[in-house]
Amino acid sequence: MSCNFYNIQLKGNQKPTNQEDRRSPEGVCFRMYTEDEAKKVGVVGWVKNTSQGTVKGQVQGPEDKVNSMKTWLSKVGSPSSRIDRADFSNEKTISELDYTNFSIKY
User: Fold this and answer.
1) Could you tell me the residue range of the domain that residue 53 belongs to?
2) At 39, phi and psi to the nearest 5?
C-alpha cells in the first residue's frame, strides 16, 4: 500500500511562520522521530519540512503497517510536537515498493 501525507501542521516552541499561527516543524524533531518510527514499524518512504511550515511525505508498505504509521503521524508525532492537522491522500494498492528505506529529504 502507498499513501501520501501532507499538510501536517505542528505547533511547537517556535515563533509563528505565517498569519495562521502555524509554527515551524523545526525544533520539534518531527522528521527525525518520523524516520525512527517508520523504521520501527517497517515502512519505507520519505518525510520533509515544507516552506509553509508543515511536514509532508510518503509511506509505503503492508496496509496494516501503513495504517499504523498514519495513526502515529496524526495522533502521536515527536515528543515536542502538537499535531493540529494531518491529511492523507493518494492511498492505493501497489505491487512494488518505490523505496528501499525511509529517509529525510531536505
Assistant:
1) 2-104
2) -65, -40
Catalytic residues: 31, 49
Domain of residue 59, CATH code: 3.30.70.100
pLDDT (tens digit per residue) in 8-52: 555 443 333 332 333 444 556 889 999 999 999 999 999 998 888
Domain count, the chain: 1
Using the 8-state DSSP alphabet, how is residue 39 labeled? H
Q: Say how far apart CA 55 and CA 45 lie, in whole Å.
A: 14
CB neighbour class for 30 (10 Å; exposed up to 12, middle 13-18, buried from 19): buried
Torsion of CA 88, 37, 46, 71, to 10 degrees: 0
The structure's pTM equals: 0.80
